[in-house]
Design a protein that fits this description.
The protein is mainly alpha-helical. Helix content is about 90%, strand content about 0%. The chain starts with a helix and ends with a helix.
Length: about 150
Amino acid sequence: VFTAFGAIYSGTMNHFLYTKYYPIWFRGNNVGSAIRMNFTDNFINTPFLFFPTLYLLKEKIIGGGSVWDAFAKYRAEWYEGCKTAWGIWIPMHVITFGVVPTSLRTPFTTVISFFYYCSVSLQQARFDERRKLLEADVENELKKQN
């Protein structure tokens, strides 16, 4: 799931955002436009587009759950996921939008994305394990009450 999602999202979505739309939305090649691009990507794109899409695909492909299951999991885990993203992407996007030429933003972020998706994969595995432990605890409590 992460490989396919990474290829589609990082390769396609980021290409359009970073090389087509952001230069139109945030005109100029200056510190102000770089800050606005970084802010938009980290505080709008990541929490409202990237992670909901990831959770939805993961739940539908691997979990077999519903859209509501995906969003319930995201709602419980969004801050931890975003903190990981922000820790990597805020500093990296200073380089992406402040130094890297527009035409090279996609290859640059794709390389960084490989390492980022490795960390997201590990984080998601920890979230899955935590969910299983919580479900087991709830089951045990219910058995004790009956």
